[in-house]
Amino acid sequence: MNGKRTIMISILIFVVLFNLKLSVAAAQELDLNQMTHTIVTEDRGDVLNMTIDQAQGMVTVNDQIISMEGYLYKVFVNDLTGDGHYEIIVSSKKEGTASLLSYSVYDVLNGELNSLYKKENIYKGRIEINEGSIVEWIPVYAEGDANAWPSAYMQNMYRFDGTTFVPDRAVETVPQRQSLTIGPGVNPSRAEIESIMEEVAARVGIPACILKSIGYTESTFRQYKDGYPLSPVGESSWGIMQVNTKWHPEYSEERLKYDIRYNIQAGAEILKNKWHRTDIPKVGNHDLRVLEDWYFAIWAYNGWSDVNNPNCNLKPEVYQDKVIGFAQAQFGQAVTRIDSDLLPQTGKPASDEIYTTPQPQHLIDLGIHKGDILIDMTDESGVNLRDQAQDGLTVGSLSPREGMLVVGEEPVVDGHYLRYHVKTLDDALEGWVVLKYVQKMRNSDVNKDGITDVFDLVKLSRKMGCFITGENGDDQLDMNDDGEIDTYDFMLAAKKYH
């Protein structure tokens, strides 16, 4: 299923029994980057041989398989039950900015794994093992908190009572600053952030107010906290859009930390991919321009889980409702929610469900107009053009990163896709293209003086032949996103010359 992967953990364990009792030792957290681990208890001489393959999401141990959703987060060994033998604690995180924590505890009897306890879908949870107890870190949000940085954490501690794990005590703590010093990062003004988001949204072909409302929900438009890249404690999610590099290794972690435009672009692309997922329901005609039709894509950005079903009452306000609330409160844009009575009482809506667009609906301009240049963003075969907007036949294909000119006034919805009327820049082909596979060309006004002129072309020509590094904004000169500044970029920019 899209957006999910299964962690297969096999654990090879050899247990050699002695008559001496093992005292409760400090928990050992296994290094997931180290492939093999041999753990020997000091008193009993128990031996646990474990092999971890983080790239495949597997810990191999004796053909016994534990299946968990998400990526491998932490693995511990510790005597949690006080019986003189180690238990194995395996935890995982699910896709989305909710970063849902699940974990399972297993003991080993006669070489067999036995499930003792498990918890699932803890919102932005963390897990530690301390003095024989399981410690869950649960975020506590106050009004105005960003999703990435709650005001406090509740440490819920669980101890084994002879049968299962029961609550022991709870302690509230304030999250620590990310460093003892103030870092060099400076957050731009809100106006600058919004301007970048509007430009990126138009490029990717998504509503700017949805992108801005998600960014505000995740980070309150902060790329940095205390001068360092904003990231929740114990996570690999970064910056304004909280892009997680565990789930999205295609993006550079360093650039997500320090390049604000890159961070926003990554978040916009991820959001657009959520829109096109086939395992979530659709709303209405699935029209990118109708804000209400984005309900389930917003839900999925945070995590396609029942945690965000308002009928499950698993948190005070579900993510998509919070985002929609900020659209109105922060950006003055009304969005009508789907009535919770229409959603299932438990679990997630069925993937093949089509919900009627709630009224009133709000149709917005995506910022792609006649005269704009779109870029083929496919990786191999190139995007197809059709002779008609609806039920058309293929008239030809472009090449990846080739440009095309928008010649039609308005896009047309075709079976849940939005199509634009275009022609190739050499006039060889004309037809209708699906917005899913294209992006608007980068702004050819590279010096930001309001017009594409000779000064922009000169600046671009001076970088000709350079490969993109992301430093000093050089990627803004790569008009067709092929990783190199070349004569084709110059030609594309020249098409917008005034």
SSE-based structural type: alpha+beta
Shape: globular
Biggest sheet overview: 6 strands, antiparallel
Q: What is the tally of beta strands?
A: 28
The tally of helices reads 8
What is the average of the pLDDT values? Answer: 88
Q: Considering DSSP H and I runs of 4 or more, what fraction of the residues is helical? A: 10-25%
Number of domains: 4
Strand content: 25-35%
The low-confidence runs, each spanning 5 or more residues with pLDDT under 50, are: 1-24
The N- to C-terminal Cα distance equals: 48 Å
Radius of gyration: 26 Å
Kindly list the characteristics that best describe this protein.
single chain, about 500 residues, alpha+beta, Lysozyme, SH3 type barrels, 4 domains, 6-stranded antiparallel β-sheet, 5-stranded antiparallel β-sheet, 28 strands, about 15% helix, globular
Give an overview of the whole structure:
- This protein has 498 residues and is of the alpha+beta class.
- The protein has four domains: 6-173, no CATH class; 190-355, Lysozyme (Orthogonal Bundle); 373-440, SH3 type barrels; 454-495, Type 1 dockerin domain (Orthogonal Bundle), CATH 1.10.1330.
- It is 17% helix and 29% strand.
- It contains eight helices and 28 strands.
- Strands 21, 24, 25, 26, 27 and 28 form a six-stranded antiparallel sheet that branches.
- Helix 4 (260-275) packs across helix 5 (295-302) and helix 7 packs antiparallel against helix 8.
- The protein is globular.
